[in-house]
Amino acid sequence: MVKCGGCGKNLQLHVTRKKRRDGSERVTSKIRCLSRVGSPACKGYVFEPNDEIIGPVTQMILSEIGHKPVTRRIYVPGEGSVERLAAIEAAINYHVAQLLPGGIYSSEALRTKGEQALTGLRQELDRLHSSEEDRQDRWEYAEIGMTFAERWRGRDTTTVANDLVQAGITVECHPRARGGHVLRLPKDLKQRFARSLDLS
User: What are phi and psi of 69, to 5 degrees?
Assistant: First the structure.
């Protein structure tokens, strides 16, 4: 999204058509701030579409993220180990009870077998408790085999602009004399863009 560096409002393409005396039409395109020219909040910046906005902004974005891989979200269901945890805890309680006098492991010959079973159950319980992230449903991000530059190669300006909006990328546009354009990339760019691919 291209925004005015003076006031933060969106920039918009304005096309004017004027008839010449010979009957032909003169078409002029400018990208302007949506604020009223002369408003104290804004200088009312005006830009040439190709030379001052499309070309420089495209180059700025490509040099910053063009080489980065495009990723897609993949939904990864948890291991469903809540049920497994309950089963392990029930099994531990059972084996502990069976080690008490009168239980099936109360004899010296079977006691070792009961203790080994308990050790295995406790190790699995510890593993499940330590891998909390694996037990929860989550999104993971996988590269789709192309960079941003490759995705945008040959695509029309509207498609690229939609990608930038979905990814939350903005450019504050200033005339060169006032420092030029400033690119703003969100910290969660990868996640935002990957979410937008779910809809495409």
Answer: -75, 145
